């Protein structure tokens, strides 16, 4: 069976979902193919055991690490992609992140597009995903042409107390910019109830502005847009010259289906987009489709992340904890003249989540005590794009993530500095855990964009240099990703590429 479309988009996450939304009103006949289904709305969405012990919603796939050891990636294949479980803290990259930045471990390369070219798309992305925040509160924030669309989510008393303490110590804590369907002035009219099961849970009341709720569902209101779920694209097929994709092959419930289109967009997330291109190799593209540069799958970035559980005598009764960020050490530390990264609060850790941090011998009662008294932080440092860090597919078709973290010294500096600040606020016990390869939540860089076809997979419109009707629109395009959360940039870029399609 073959059906023809103007455009086929593969994947419904931040990149693909936003692109579909932005093009829906053009009248183009668009088919969206998504390997997963709709994430079920059920009580387990908010059940910590289902999330942290059973890993109920993550893929059952197993990938290989650089030593060929099997691991279970925390990847989510469903309509909306990983945004169904994301923390919804969406931030612009800093203006300096678009330029070359000297880091401890080397240079973070410049983008060929400036911050000012991205700014209007950031603005649209913030409006679409209903960002809450206060412009200018964060001293590292880049210039913006308008306020955030919504007031920030207020700090609960314990977090306000910590904010005041940090300000007294000379820091500049700010309200985290969050993508939630809530209006602090009229909370009853918006679904978000400020619960304690936001990050990293799916939202049972659909109040998180994820790609499904915000983009895919509204796009499907247009009769020219179709979505096929549980449909995994296995291969892109080109014409004999290898310069145009003519069809995709997909597997749905054991059947192989083919779809043809004028234009194809791969939006499978940075790891799976590279995998699909590599698996689509042919005589004309022996190293993988659109891979004459050899860069497909290379330069993988994952960020250096650590969770820091800080315990004080004072109980922490906060319900919605993820309201505070600190960027005072984004570009340098007190004694470090290199960038360190970002500090933000994460969802309130319950004892079930803390189990992953502690030896099995720690009894539940101790975990409960810690959970009652802890404030839970998430620290992120930029990792630098390295050719050696790559995604490949082995002879059995298994995904291999050959990744070694770099720029670790500034990450440890950040943890040490933050621990010392928290000591001054009477925290006395700390559990820091560097996130392992399973937590590839912030994946980027595997099909980077740039004007030189010998060094980049994509041109500046995210079209592949080698194949004239093939685009990649997701986290793959980043040449470097700063230390802020990447998704607002993925969304803004999808809106930018949509404008390119409209202007063609
Ligand atoms: C727990 C968690 C918390 C996070 N918190 C934040 C946060 O607070 N802020 C932030 O900025 N980012 C956060 N992130 C990261 C954010 O979710 C990602 O940056 C973002 O979703 C990436 O968008 P994408 O379009 O590149 O890929 P994805 O969102 O992963 O979308 C890819 C889509 O493609 C589909 N797909 C893959 N392969 C195929 C195929 N072969 N055929 C068909 N479909 C396919 C997948 O099922 C998926 O729907 C978080 C992620 C996780 C997991």
Automatic annotation (TrEMBL):
Sorted UniProt keywords: FAD, Flavoprotein, Oxidoreductase
Keyword Flavoprotein attached: yes
Domain named Glucose-methanol-choline oxidoreductase C-terminal: residues: 439-494
Residue span, Glucose-methanol-choline oxidoreductase N-terminal domain: 32-303
Pfam family, one: GMC_oxred_C
UniProt xrefs under SUPFAM superfamilies: FAD/NAD(P)-binding domain
Keyword Flavoprotein: yes
A GO MF label: flavin adenine dinucleotide binding
Domain of life of the source: Bacteria
Gene3D superfamilies, sorted: FAD/NAD(P)-binding domain
Family membership: Belongs to the GMC oxidoreductase family.
Protein name: Glucose-methanol-choline oxidoreductase
Species of provenance: Stanieria cyanosphaera (strain ATCC 29371 / PCC 7437)
Lineage: Bacteria, Bacillati, Cyanobacteriota, Cyanophyceae, Pleurocapsales
